[in-house]
């Protein structure tokens, strides 16, 4: 099994079709297709749903299934013109039904190695005001954190949200999570998690940790892995 995360520039009409239908491919176990949004952007703005920028997070039976999709599928060929990273699954906190087959832990890691974090959540729509209130400060923290080389978020209306971050090290990521970073407003993530535990924002959610295996293409003219 292998995972991948893709970023690509598409027409708004193709992005909307992909959000509605998603890909169909041999060896594809599950895919989440979402429109990018800028971390920390105003709650009501065009930056909250960028229809020319598609993100796809996918689980594959093996790497050859991913290769076939990128070479032979119409959407896959468009994604191959963008950027993607191939990932080895390591750990999850929480669970989403679509990825229920993932074990809680599948491997170890060095605290100093680079790491990729993916969150996936199905929001309780009545909780949206609370989610924005407590989540947007965390978005700003992560977007400007010196421990990240890249951070973004994505949405598929009405209730699916995701974040994707590349960290220089596991230690930098865990320090952020626990409020130990030497940055302004370092406590915001820990405070938001306490509020989440007090009353869950989501029907289901998972925070997943991956080891980056290989990087393909560029995004906005640059490579993203450290």
From TrEMBL:
InterPro entries (alphabetical): CrtA-like
Domain of life the protein comes from: Bacteria
Protein name: Spheroidene monooxygenase
Taxonomic lineage: Bacteria, Bacillati, Actinomycetota, Actinomycetes, Micromonosporales
């Amino acid at each position: 099994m292998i995972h991948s995360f893709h970023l690509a520039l598409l027409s708004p009409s193709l992005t909307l079709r992909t959000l509605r239908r998603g890909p169909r491919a041999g060896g594809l176990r599950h895919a989440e297709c979402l429109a990018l949004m800028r971390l920390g952007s105003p709650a009501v703005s065009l930056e909250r749903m960028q229809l020319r920028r598609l993100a796809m997070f996918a689980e594959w039976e093996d790497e050859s299934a991913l290769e076939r999709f990128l070479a032979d599928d119409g959407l896959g060929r468009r994604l191959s013109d963008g950027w993607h990273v191939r990932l080895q699954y390591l750990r999850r906190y929480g669970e989403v039904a679509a990825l229920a087959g993932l074990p809680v832990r599948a491997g170890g890691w060095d605290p100093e190695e680079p790491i990729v974090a993916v969150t996936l959540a199905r929001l309780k729509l009545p909780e949206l005001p609370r989610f924005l209130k407590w989540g947007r400060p965390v978005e700003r923290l992560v977007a400007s954190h010196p421990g990240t080389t890249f951070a973004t978020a994505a949405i598929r209306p009405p209730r699916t949200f995701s974040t994707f971050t590349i960290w220089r090290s596991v230690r930098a990521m865990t320090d952020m999570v626990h409020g130990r970073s030497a940055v302004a407003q370092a406590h915001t993530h820990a405070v938001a998690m306490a509020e989440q535990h007090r009353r869950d924002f989501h029907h289901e959610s998972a925070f997943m940790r991956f080891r980056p295996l290989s990087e393909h293409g560029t995004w906005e003219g640059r490579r993203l892995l450290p």
